Each structure stands twice: as C-alpha cells, then as structure tokens.
Amino acid sequence: xxxxxxxxxxxxxxxxxxxxxxxxxxxxxxxxxxxxxxxxxxxxxxxxxxxxxxxxxxxxxxxxxxxxxxxxxxxxxxxxxxxxxxxxxxxxxxxxxxxxxxxxxxxxxxxxxxxxxxxxxxxxxxxxxxxxxxxxxxxxxxxxxxxxxxxxxxxxxxxxxxxxxxxxxxxxxxxxxxxxxxxxxxxxxxxxxxxxxxxxxxxxxxxxxxxxxxxxxxxxxxxxxxxx
Length: 228
Prior knowledge:
Elements: E1 6-10, H1 14-20, H2 25-45, E2 50-57, H3 65-80, H4 83-89, E3 91-96, H5 104-116, E4 123-131, H6 133-146, H7 156-160, E5 173-176, E6 195-198, H8 208-219
Parallel strand pairs: 1-2, 1-5, 2-4, 3-4, 5-6
C-alpha cells in the first residue's frame, strides 16, 4: 500500500449544508471550519503529512460583505486564538495565496502563525487564502523574472521551486465535496497527476468513513503517470 504524502480538500457546500439544516449560512462556515480540524486529525492519524485546504478563493470576494467579513474573522481566529491547537497537534501552518486585499490584521495573524508553528514537525497544513491557481503561476513567473533567470534556465523544476508550495510534494489526492466536478483553480500547477475524488456530501457532512473510502479507492487505482 502506497503511503500518501499529500491530500488536498476543496471544502465546498458549507452554505448549502446550513440551508438543508435550517441554519444561517454563517453557521455553515463555522461548522465547516470545525470539520477542517477534524479531518486534519484523521489525516495525521493515517500518516498523511501534508494537507492543503481551499479556505478562501480569489473569487470569494464576490460574496456579500457580511459573509466576507465573517470569513475573515473566522480565519483570523484560527490563526490567533487556536495556535495552541496547532502546537498540540505538532502542525506547521503555511498560508498560500496573495496578501493583496486581505485585512492588515489577518496578514499580521498569518505572519505570526507561520513563525510560531515553524518548528512543529508532525505535519504541514497549507491554508489557501485569497488563492487562485493561475494567480500562483503568475506570481511564480514574476519571482523568476525578478531573479533575472535566463529563458534557457526556465523549466518545470524552476517553476516548482517558486510556487507557494515550494519544497512540498504535489498532492496525491484532491477531494471536492458537495457534488461539484471541477477544481475551480485549486492547485492548478500541482494537481496535474493528482487522483480526483468528488463527494456528494457537503463539507460539514464529510465523515471519517468517506476519508477511508477515498484512501482505499486510491490504493486500488493504477497510477501510470503517462506510462503503459
């Protein structure tokens, strides 16, 4: 059985879950955040060292100000008041995405959380905040240009060294909940050979059994990477 190094989640359906349970949409986001912590524990218990979650996309700014403000508060709370939870679990936190448009208090919380958890060794949680896959590739190209690299030196390895997840393995598995069958700009560069799983449940309804079913299915797939 192959050891899975990296699993990524598109945490979709928080609002739809809340609506189906007669709850305010903001409560759906709170439950979704709690589910993220729960799923993280399940993954670490199974030896998966790298977890990436799509917490806030560049497209999410189109939502109502009330919802965006709530999500920013939720993220800031996760990055400040819950730091002990990361330490307790031995998790290093990394935030991938653009800092542009983020509130100054969230940027400060990100910087502090990354420094505070940098020595934790049990696993890495990448939180994609204000993230877009194409934006990440553009940012990598800009970094390479600023390094004054020659065009001959530009290859896949160089780009991989300049993306936001540089130094980490590409995801073996990408999971999207809530029945949608697309990646919506998530880990565009990194997911080229990821196995994709689309789950009907909304994110707050994702279960430990769902995770085990995905891992078992993954281990039964024949991954040829373009070979025979």
